[in-house]
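U., I forgot to send this yesterday:
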Amino acid sequence: MTVMDGLEYRRLPILVTGVPRSGTTWFARLLAAGAGMALTGREPMNPRGRQYALAHTLSGWARLRNMSARQRRAVRLAYLGLNPWTYSRYGHRQWAAPLPWTTNVIKDPFALLSIPGILDATGGIRAVLIYRHPGAVLASYRRMGWEPDIDEVQRLITAARDCGGPNLDDLPHREDMSYAEAMGRFWSTLHEFVLHDLLVAEISAVTHVIAHSEVASGGPTAGQAVASALGITWNSAMSQELSKESSANGSASSLHNLDRAPSDVAEAWRGKVSNDEIAEIDAVTAVTMAKLARARLRLAGGVSD
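Result:
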């Protein structure tokens, strides 16, 4: 039991984060199907469009360590399920989120670089970093018409170097890279920040690294291993999600197509990325991928990227 802002919080919330388009929504909904769980759905730190952007204090990717009083309050309320601005149609059992006996799942890719700050602001969380092969992220970004945020990430690299953070290589200008190389460098840099943070003892103790392909292709056996590691009670709804077959109801243009079988999703991206692009993206991400593979939670029955 922990105390957050004077409120007894019987179950530590679970943050699901990862590079955007890494399966965070699907994975968070899978966890939220467990007994006593809830997912509010909206990403508290998302700065895009009309999103919440942590009480409108963020304008892009951020690496928060010492949050302002406004940011700390926004984080605490979001993770307690007490902020209606963090509710969305992708949530699950949102009505239960404010109840003190509910375990809240918070899905937020833009929290990826701020796990230490969130841990400090809340007083306690469990975090899951879910990662996919960068080729899968490339295929999904391309489908959405998105570009990797090279300029924003470069600013974070410079700021981290100036304040004693990780000393990461500068990124080339976007116009000097192919789409595949830009995605690979974007993907690697974000994960290198997290891998640096995992060297901090209190962060490593509460953070699990999970390969999307292993849980998506591993069926209920892999899912049960995840649930056990996170202290979630496994149930039939979670088993059904990992065993389901694809439906024809999904839209290829939607932000999330949650009607597909997880095992189909795991490898479908390979038919949408050329062999040359895979080779190019593998060349710039191999070192980071190997680090993630070593750090990941091993799930029986899954297939690692």
